[in-house]
Every structure is written in structure tokens, then in C-alpha cells.
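haha ok so turns out i had the wrong file open the whole time. this is the CORRECT one, sorry everyone. sequence first:
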Amino acid sequence: MVYHLPAGSSKGDHNRFRWRIHGRDTSSWGGKYAYHRPGFLDGVPHVLLHTGIVILRPEDGPALLEIVKAEGGEAVTRQVLLERADQRALAAGGRRPSRASGGARNSR
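then structure:
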């Protein structure tokens, strides 16, 4: 799925959009209490290829599409042929960043 907000959207709209999908790291008391507020992708197996480009299981796609549309975004979905590493990542419930985004450096 490829998703984005329309051109001309405010920075606040972009932030809320990104937080709802990806979650966000936040803290209080000057960084003393740091935690992650989960977003949609934190709860589903996925492969994040690039900002706004994600591979999901077919059963998870409609839920993300609903979030994107509820936030005023646009999305395009396609079926793709996965590499073995992507298949393993989705089957294991984990996430695997693409090699183009830095590979293992960004993995959990």
C-alpha cells in the first residue's frame, strides 16, 4: 500500500496522520519518562519499504485503508510478489525494513 496526505495539508495534519499509523515516541518531565505511543503498524506484521510505502498481509490492508481515509489521506493498493525475507517477516509477525532504508540498522 502506498499512502499520503493531499498536497497543501498542514504540518499538524501530517503529524496526526503519521502518529496514527506509525505511533510516536514521547516523554515527560524533560525526558525522565520516555515511552512509545503505539500506532496501527505497531500491532500488525508489516514490511516498511519507505515512508508511506508498506507491505501488509491482505487481512490487515482494509483496516489501514480505513485509517488513511479517516485522516483525509489517499491510498493505492496492489498485490505484490514478496521476496523470501519479506514472507518470513510477515509470517513471523515481525517487520523487516528494506535494504534501501538501511537494512538491519533499523530493525527491532
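Helices lie at 11-22, 61-70, 84-92.
again sry for the mixup
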